[in-house]
Amino acid sequence: MHLCVDSSQAVIEVARKRAIIVPMQVLGDLVKLSVQEDPSGLLPVPWWHRAPLGLHSNTPVYIAITASSGDGSGPDDRPGDLLLSVLDPNTWHDLALLTCSTSDKPGLLTKAFAIVPPLNIALAEAATMVEHRQDGKVQRIHQVTVVCEPRGATKSAMEHRDRVEAAMRDQGWTTRMEQMDMPLVSHPVDIGQVVNGWAVCKWWRLVEKQGARFPEFDFTRAVVSADTDRRFVRYVFPRRGTHTVQVEHRDSPGALEALTAALAAAGLNVLSALLRRGGAKHGNAVLVAVCEPPNGYDGSIGEIIRSALATVDGAFRVFPPGRSDIHDGRPAESTIYLSHPEEPIAKLDRDMLQLVRQAKKRLPQGLCPIFLSRRFFKNCPRTARLALEIKEVLRLNGCVAVEGEEQVSGLKPPFWYITEQMWNSRGAIILLAKSSDQSEASVVPNLAHELGFFQGQGKPLLILEEVGLDADLLKFSNIAGANKPRFDASDEAFDHSNRFSLRSRIEKWLNDWKR
């Protein structure tokens, strides 16, 4: 994280003030923006940022860009950040933030809001809270936060500061009114609207002029955060080649220092970092860091990150980052909804849901489960080798293969066991292979059943077809008409340098949907 230090006492005092009153940001991940040929592309507003700022669908918003730091010729120069807010940036420096609290009782809000005019109340929040007094008693208080904006002849909301504070104190409020510390923005300012999680606006036109001055920066990706104090969403543009790394590690003193020190020693700039306990097993934590490459670097930043994490003390139990733990940005569409309101969702009955939940606990932590659907051939070493190769390729790519394996007794796995495995899988691989024993069919109904399940769920699906199965596949029209990458019937299927090998087919499929 870059930190610019000014020796003047005034700047130091401002920094101290901001450190005290600014709450923690609502952070997210590196997001791929939707850049279209038409400059009026859609700007994604992730759901976890929309929620705290109240950006419901059909909300009018303003889009602006901050002044750049330098002209792009210096090593530390950066382009401006894109900002989205319901507050007009043209009047940002005329706004005031009023915060006040008092003992809770009926009628408080009416009296408080009556004091604010002729200022306009742009935004307001009020909540009842519990306060523990020094005498040990519990007191319920009401806390109010109001964003005031000038109207009419009033040029700045701060012109009414003395009047508002005095009137609030007369009513028994503990109060403070101060000018909102808003960033300087460039003009023009665009107007848009949030529609189903997308800001429909001409945001690209605000940043395209910076592309020529800052060629090392990627304007098709952004680190997105929500400033709940100043009420805007910020989009920070990273250097080209920036990646996000997610690291699970032991939750212990010194862990965060060790991780960031390793990244810094590799010359990486951490553009944003989020430490959380959510998503980690007990006793662990997760660091999500957006890492910029060194100036002028054009290689694989993923290898730099992996090498850096390998130097961290083993006492911190850094989870070995697989390919799914380091990526170049989340697709914008995946950030809009936890689940789309118009998306059909199949629900389980209560008994099956319990089985699915129990089966999920048995899955390895941190690995992506992929269902492997295949014909269980008897006395066929090649098909067993094919299955082992698929499982190994998945393991090397941060995944784990799950399947309804035959029991030791030779009995087929029960239907409910296969069902719970399929429900817990994020995708599936259907293996269509030949049998050395011609008495056994190469394609059987269970493959078609499992294929239909994953098609109905809309989950990623890969059908692997061994060369020479055309006659058998005609028995199932949906399989016959599907796109099926073929792999060689010889040992070349296991040659990793062969573009028709199992590994090349599977890794291409994983890269297409996991990114």
Q: TL;DR?
A:
The protein is an alpha+beta fold. Helices cover 27% and strands 27% of the residues.
Detailed description of the structure:
The protein has 515 residues and is an alpha+beta fold. The chain is 27% helix and 27% strand. It is built from 14 helices and 22 strands. The strands form four sheets. Strands 2-10-9-3-4-12-11-1-17 form a nine-stranded mixed β-sheet, covered by helices on one side. Strands 19-18-20-21-22 form a five-stranded parallel β-sheet, with helices on both faces. Strands 6-7-5-8 form a four-stranded antiparallel β-sheet, covered by helices on one side. Strand 14 and strand 15 form a beta hairpin. Helix 8 crosses helix 10 and helix 9 runs parallel beside helix 14. The longest helix is centred in the C-terminal third of the chain and has 16 residues. The radius of gyration is 29 Å and the shape is elongated. The N terminus is likely disordered.
Task: Spell out the key features of this protein.
about 525 residues; nine-stranded mixed beta sheet; 14 helices; about 25% helix; disordered N terminus
Termini separation comes to 25 Å
What is the beta-strand fraction?
25-35%
What share of the residues lie within helices?
A: 25-40%
Number of strands: 22
Query: What order do the strands of the largest sheet run in, or round the barrel if closed?
Result: 2-10-9-3-4-12-11-1-17
The oligomeric state of the chains shown is single chain
Largest sheet: 9 strands, mixed
What is the tally of helical segments? 14
